[in-house]
Design goal:
It is a single chain. This protein is mostly beta strands and 464 residues long. The protein has a single domain, classed as monomeric porin ompg (Porin). Helix content is 7%, strand content 46%. The chain has helices at residues 11-16, 21-24, 26-41, 45-48, 130-133; strands at residues 58-62, 65-69, 148-152, 156-160, 183-198, 207-223, 228-237, 240-244, 247-251, 257-267, 271-281, 287-291, 294-298, 304-313, 319-330, 334-340, 346-351, 356-369, 376-390, 396-400, 407-411, 418-430, 434-443, 454-463. The strands form three sheets. The protein has a twelve-stranded antiparallel barrel with strand order 5-6-7-10-11-14-15-18-19-22-23-24. Strands 8-9-12-13-16-17 form a six-stranded antiparallel β-sheet, with no helix packed on it. A hairpin with a 3-residue loop joins β10 and β11. It is elongated and about 105 Å long. Mean pLDDT is 79; it is low at 1-25, 36-70, 86-93 and 112-127.
Length: 464
């Protein structure tokens, strides 16, 4: 968590944490190359594979129901049947559809009903994918600030910046998995002590913090034979206001529109691979503030592109795992303008954020499954690890207004950032097409880089 009291928030801390972009660029190049090659080269296993049927014993798995099917014996050539007499005119014809099994072939048991297995609206035309379709989505952990501001007059005051309604930038692993889906959903995230301010960074005990409650609505739809999907989501949050030592900060309540395109690259009975591109559009609120006689605005202008690749694995009907690897690359910066009661308006400059790398892994276990239940059809436990790191140097915009003695700094005053969080949650299925999940997120490191003290996650998904 950012703490302005720490001496590392100075510009000297930023300079000491710089590292060459070229040395850290290789993960981005590898990920982009992998996605491009996979998108144009990998076949769709479920679409292109040819299935050969051999007379061997097989097992049909429907959730937790196993029905053994004996091999079908090869039919012997039937002897020519003797000529039958023509039926009488008044003889009753057998009902349509009724037929006797061929002579010499014993009747086969009826296969189990697959319509009782909840497909959750996923890839309904692929029977082998029922196991993968019911794997729970990842829970997530993500909260991102727009940086910090540090204003100096007689005292140095600092504060976090809450840009775009607590929904700035995006993370594909939030309530998602590597399969195209048809769903609408709602997410609630409570971030405890997510934003901090300090009225005087030279005096201990002058800090205070604020919580953030974020609400997200979204819709995902499949197209092109369910091999593709597009996901639209937009977050909202209560307006954030700080007033610390003469520095007043206010962030709006509307977040950025996030569009995620997903393409299924490979699908089998026990796993799937998907890749795509997410776009974070600057439709959310700006950050405004005032210090002494000067008012400033950090405009929400940056467009973020996020290529990613993900996998999904369910080796049996109980255990499952999945993960995502993603980049978040800003295409442009956010301009910081000011107005003053005495001097004409101007600009401090353009603040460009750092490129981020996300690595997310999740594993879970079905505690119980009952597709025949009327209400709750499944309950699973989930454990996740999330890692976020910066791949480029921190950008800090500094300046002053004309001849006024006040100075300003905008940007990531922490420099290089590494954040590791763990998520523990419970996933429940209701009525075969609805999931309700509750989870807690906890940072593994107690340092100034952690984005919050703790997080509560609640998500509701309705599949169709």
């Amino acid at each position: 968590m950012y703490s302005p009291c720490d001496s590392r928030t100075s510009v000297g801390r930023v300079a000491s944490d710089r590292f060459a972009l070229s040395a850290a660029f290789w993960p981005a190049a590898i990920l982009l190359s992998l996605i491009v090659v996979a998108a144009f080269s990998l076949p769709i296993a479920a679409q292109d594979a040819e299935i050969s049927i051999e007379p061997v014993a097989t097992s049909v798995v429907v959730e937790d129901i196993f029905v053994a099917q004996p091999p079908k014996p090869k039919a012997k050539p039937a002897a020519p049947a003797p000529a039958k007499k023509a039926p009488a005119a008044d003889a009753k014809k057998p009902p349509r559809g009724a037929s006797e099994p061929p002579a010499g072939i014993p009747p086969q048991p009826e296969p189990p009903r697959t319509d009782l297995v909840p497909d959750l609206g996923l890839l309904a035309f692929r029977t082998p994918s029922l196991r993968l379709a019911s794997v729970p989505n990842m829970l997530g952990d993500f909260f991102n600030q727009a940086g910090q501001i540090q204003a100096t007059d007689n005292l140095t005051t600092a504060s976090d910046l809450a840009l775009a309604g607590g929904g700035y930038r995006l993370k594909v692993a939030e309530n998602n998995k590597a399969l195209p889906m048809n769903r609408c959903y709602f997410m609630y995230n409570h971030f405890h002590n997510a934003l901090e301010a300090d009225t005087n960074i030279a005096a201990p005990g002058s800090e205070f913090s604020s919580h953030v409650d974020r609400y997200t609505i979204g819709l995902e739809r499949t197209f092109r034979d369910d091999l593709w999907s597009v996901d639209l989501r937009i977050p909202f949050a209560a307006s954030q206001q700080f007033n610390s030592g003469g520095l007043a900060i206010e962030g709006g309540s509307v977040g950025n529109l996030q569009v995620t395109l997903k393409r299924l690259l490979a699908l089998g009975d026990y796993g799937a691979v998907a890749a795509g591109l997410a776009i974070d559009a600057p439709t959310g609120s700006d950050v405004t503030g005032q210090f002494t006689t000067t008012s400033f605005t950090m405009h929400n202008q940056a467009v973020h592109l996020a290529p990613y690749i993900g996998f999904l694995r369910a080796a049996d009907d109980r255990l499952f795992c999945q993960g995502f690897l993603q980049l978040d690359v800003p295409m442009n910066g956010n301009q910081v303008d000011y107005t003053d009661t005495v001097f004409p308006p101007g600009t401090f400059g353009t603040f460009t954020e750092q490129t981020l790398l996300y690595a997310d892994i999740s594993a879970g276990y079905w505690l119980c499954r009952n597709p025949y239940a009327n209400v709750i059809t499944g309950l699973a436990s989930i454990l996740e690890f999330h890692y976020t790191t910066t791949l480029s140097d921190a950008d800090v915009v500094a300046g002053s207004v004309a001849t006024l003695p006040q100075t300003y700094q905008f940007g990531n005053l922490l420099g290089h950032v590494d954040v590791t969080n763990v998520t523990v949650g419970l996933h429940s299925e209701w009525f075969g097409n609805t999931t309700l999940r509750v989870a807690g997120v906890f940072p593994l490191h107690n340092n100034i880089e952690r984005p919050f003290d703790a997080e509560v996650v609640v998500s509701l998904n309705l599949y169709h």
